């Protein structure tokens, strides 16, 4: 059973930056494609970014492309989300998730395809 724990959230002003981390344990981290999602109150969970098992391929939602960067360190069993130029609309609970199989090799956008989820870390961007 893979366990994911996010950290790095907090309160930041508009235009600021945060770096989220997601530490994995209990499985072979390099077997999984890793994604970041977020959910704001009253809204559906939103795909943000995904990285394949090797880190060779990444994909982003249009809403964060050019501002957010996903990366991973398989030696540290950790995936990161660097968030720059933050906006108030980025305020949400941020989750990392892991998926094997096809998603590991190609990356998946659909939250339903991810088997493992963290508990989330809150990001609040003040105007």
Number of helices, counting only DSSP H or I runs of 4 residues or more: 1
Low-confidence stretches: none
Q: Determine Rg (CA atoms, Å).
A: 13 Å
Average pLDDT, to the nearest integer? Answer: 96
Spell the H/E element sequence: EEEEEEEEEHEE
Any overview of this molecule?
This protein is mainly beta. Helices cover 4% and strands 48% of the residues. It is built from 1 helix and 11 strands, in the order βββββββββαββ. The protein has one helix spanning 102-106; strands spanning 3-7, 10-13, 18-25, 33-39, 46-51, 58-60, 68-73, 78-83, 92-99, 116-117, 121-126. Strands 2, 4, 5, 6, 9, 10 and 11 form a 7-stranded mixed sheet that branches. A hairpin with a 6-residue loop joins strand 5 (46-51) and strand 6. The longest helix has 5 residues, at 102-106.
Keywords:
48% strand, 127 residues, globular, 11 strands, single chain, 7-stranded mixed β-sheet
Provide a compact summary of the structure.
The protein is built from one helix and eleven strands.
Please describe the topology of this protein.
Layout: E1 3-7, E2 10-13, E3 18-25, E4 33-39, E5 46-51, E6 58-60, E7 68-73, E8 78-83, E9 92-99, H1 102-106, E10 116-117, E11 121-126
Parallel strand pairs: 2-11
Antiparallel strand pairs: 1-3, 3-8, 4-5, 4-9, 5-6, 7-8, 9-10, 9-11
């Amino acid at each position: 059973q893979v366990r994911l724990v996010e950290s790095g959230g907090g309160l930041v002003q508009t235009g600021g930056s945060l770096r989220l981390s997601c530490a994995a344990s209990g499985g072979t981290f390099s077997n999984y494609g890793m994604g970041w999602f977020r959910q704001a109150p009253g809204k559906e969970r939103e795909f943000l970014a995904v990285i394949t098992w090797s880190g060779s391929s990444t994909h982003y939602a249009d809403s964060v492309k050019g501002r957010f960067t996903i990366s991973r360190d398989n030696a540290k069993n950790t995936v990161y989300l660097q968030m720059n130029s933050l906006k108030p609309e980025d305020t949400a609970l941020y989750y990392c998730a892991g998926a094997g199989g096809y998603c590991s090799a190609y990356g998946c956008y659909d939250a339903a395809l991810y088997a493992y989820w963290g508990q989330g870390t809150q990001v609040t961007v003040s105007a």
